[in-house]
Amino acid sequence: DAGVIQSPRHEVTEMGQEVTLRCKPISGHNSLFWYRQTMMRGLELLIYFNNNVPIDDSGMPEDRFSAKMPNASFSTLKIQPSEPRDSAVYFCASSLKVEADTQYFGPGTRLTVL
Amino acid sequence: SQQGEEDPQALSIQEGENATMNCSYKTSINNLQWYRQNSGRGLVHLILIRSNEREKHSGRLRVTLDTSKKSSSLLITASRAADTASYFCATDAGGSYIPTFGRGTSLIVHP
Predict the structure, then answer these.
(1) Which chain B residues contact residue A105 at CB under 8 A?
(2) What is the pLDDT of residue A10?
(3) How far apart are CA B111 and CA B35, in angstroms?
């Protein structure tokens, strides 16, 4: 199994640009989570999906952030417009179900907004 | 705010020594999990302990849970340089099974 796949691994963009992060969960997993990790705030849950439906997006910092899961094998996290304070490592994780014991994390996308 | 907080923030030991990290949390939980994160990588699940369990082992890892004190500890015995990583506890507050992560303990094991 390839595990959770994220792309790109690194993204450098300028303030105001649109950024799209991509995630492919482990096949058969029904839940998908997007996290953001910074030194200041640690690991924050942004949004999670169950069976492709967004369940809780209360962690999304503001309207500039949006996430979609059009099918069971693909999700995107979009930031438009991006700001320097969005610079962080963004992780996607999947699990068999929302209440599963284990979340499997992808390698992350390091985003730098200049 | 974070549900679980790890202590210490950083730990530096010599290979072969034991490493102990602690996690304290605020509200009742269903489960507590420990994850490891190597530099530049995603988190990897290590072990889960349920609220009705007191101790669990996995290889060189030993996790204890004291629900009366709302705390857990992770013990790594006979540490190796490869154990160098950040270790996070993740707890779910009673009504939700979604884990909340602490800020982690950074462990450095010197060869």
Answers:
(1) 42-44
(2) 97
(3) 23
